[in-house]
Amino acid sequence: MAGGVMRHLLTIAVCMVVAGGALHAKPRAVSLNVCTDQLLVDLADREQILGVSTFARDPNLSWVAARAGPYTAVAAAEDVVSRAPDVVLAGVFNKIATRQVLAASGLRVEAFALANDFAGVREAITRVGSLLQQEERAARRIAALDGALARLRHAASTRALRILPLQRRGWVSGSDTLTSALLAEAGLVNIAAELGLYAGGQVGLERLIALRPDLILGSREETYGEDQGSALLLHPALRARVPAERWIYIPGRLTVCGGPGLIEAIDALIEQLVPFTGEAPLPRIQPRAGP
């Protein structure tokens, strides 16, 4: 009799422990945006990730492409609802109708704007860390970002070199963008301000040549004109004005979003600034934040 009662009490105790563990498990999330993908995959434990966006595995767009393989790509609201996440991470540019359907289904939807400065980047990392109950991991990532910025300032140009952040089809990143904030930390002046471009815009070849930049920032080194967009970047007149040794490159997947990928972007910029500044880079200290 006593043994049976004891076994019953032990069973209740085990159930309470299991239930308590479930109640205190870290929130699980789905991401619908390539930028929130970066934050979710980098900051969450694997079991917290219920889905990522359809762009998460695209190596041209996603900093976490190599790490996103194990996770299901979701697109439709029905797919998200069926996974019953504790929180949905979205961008303000995700379809508002999708966000409304998810909210109407009782899901918590957190929308993130694109960061255009480093304060916004820190805020996004901190916010996702809080939503996922990964505050310490987020704090370590911010510390790593601040360390990278310190290395960048050490290597910064003192000559206020004028730089043209140029993409395919003549797209110039504007002065009110994260790319411009990154360049400013390096002591570089984004020519977009001279053009009156704040968010960015397309600029014709003749006008690009007339700008006479000291440097051009691209997202990848073009070796042949695979289409009209890339052909502009290889135009002989532009290359004559700014020869190959004055082009620097940071992959677009590192700067398209305000997140931990910027640490890698900063170190890539530092290495390429050495010929123009003569400053030896400080050693990197980049602890891994993710699982």
Automatic annotation (TrEMBL):
Q: Name one Pfam family in it.
A: Peripla_BP_2
Q: Name one GO biological process term.
A: cellular response to iron ion
Q: Which domain of life is it from?
A: Bacteria
InterPro entries with a match to the protein in the record = ABC_Transporter_SBP, ABC_transptr_periplasmic_BD
Q: Where is the Fe/B12 periplasmic-binding domain?
A: 28-281
Protein name, per record: Fe/B12 periplasmic-binding domain-containing protein
